[in-house]
Batch of 3 targets.
Target 1
Amino acid sequence: MEKVILDMMRWADITEEKLREKQLIITGFGETLSWEYLCYVRNHPVNWSVPTCILYGDKDNLTSQETIHKFANDVDAELTIMQNGMLFFQDAGRKKTLIYNLLDKLPKGNLITDLN
């Protein structure tokens, strides 16, 4: 998450000093950057310990492929890259198909899902 925040700061040409001074800054692309949240992220590193499958769109404009590969490797997650996919799924039918395909890869057990 820290990398995502720092990338957004870079895109908006905002330094850490400026963010610390202002505390909250609304970017030109509609995201609000928060000094408090950046500090929280830095002080609470991810401790991931559950089996995880990640579906990543190769056209995601927020998280780089390098970042998602590193995260998947760090938490031992299975990473599926969807060709021509974006940060958000474009339609419900495509989303359901992709989710069902991922669910088939998970261990069977007490998994409850609601895809509506």
Target 2
Amino acid sequence: MLTVSAPVLADGDRRWCERVTVTFRNSGGTAARAGTVTFATHVIGALGVHWATLTSTQPLPAPIPAGSARTETYTVCVDSWRVPLGMRIDTRQVTVGRR
């Protein structure tokens, strides 16, 4: 069983990117050898209005041995045109799919 912590966010070097740190915990009996991490990133307007939710995927930092945890920081970006001046992004959900 592979679980993921709530994301810890930090500003990226561009307004359409951010650094997302998560911890993966493998409480199962075998190593997690492959999979994907899916990020749900929200585009937020200057007044706090939610404009869109965009998803992206990156590889799972495998292998994650049984009974252990691993922390990884990803740079998550959306298309620059989706985040005009005054807007920001906020990655609120991270899920993991194991193969």
Target 3
Amino acid sequence: MGLFDFLKSDKKKAHENAEKAQAQEQVQRQADQGPGPARSAAADAASATRAAAERMAAAAPPERGPAPAPATPTPGSAAHKAVPAPPRPAAMPKPAPPSTPRGAAHTPTPHSAAHKAVPAAPVAKPQPTAKKRTYTVKQGDTLAAIAGRELGNEARWRELYAMNRGVIGANPELVPPGAVLTLPS
């Protein structure tokens, strides 16, 4: 409860007490003005009311007003040191200074708003690869003979050997029959 609320409640109580007093005075006036038997009943009621109010006031504990709001500990008080501080939110790491020179084009990062605003680059579809030509080695074939027949130039045997070294082995003169060779385009 703040200070202004406390003052308002005091004013409210004072106003209620004033209304009660006015009501008692009015009852007293009526008792004084009325005829004989009515006057005595009104006077009796007024005096009974007044006596009851006095008894209640005497029996009631002294009015201290509303309970004060708990004090907020100040940073220097012992109470402040006894109260644990509320947890602080984790600090966000500071962004690294821009590595691009001023005026250079900005490359959006995956977390930046600019990245979300830029549509993704279209993914290039892989070009349909030309069907690789192959040749199955027959008994008595040499790399030069295969290159002359299939590639049109016997001198390309080195190219043929380089592409098929894993199939042929270390000696290019010994081509195993039945081996499937990949032909260069």
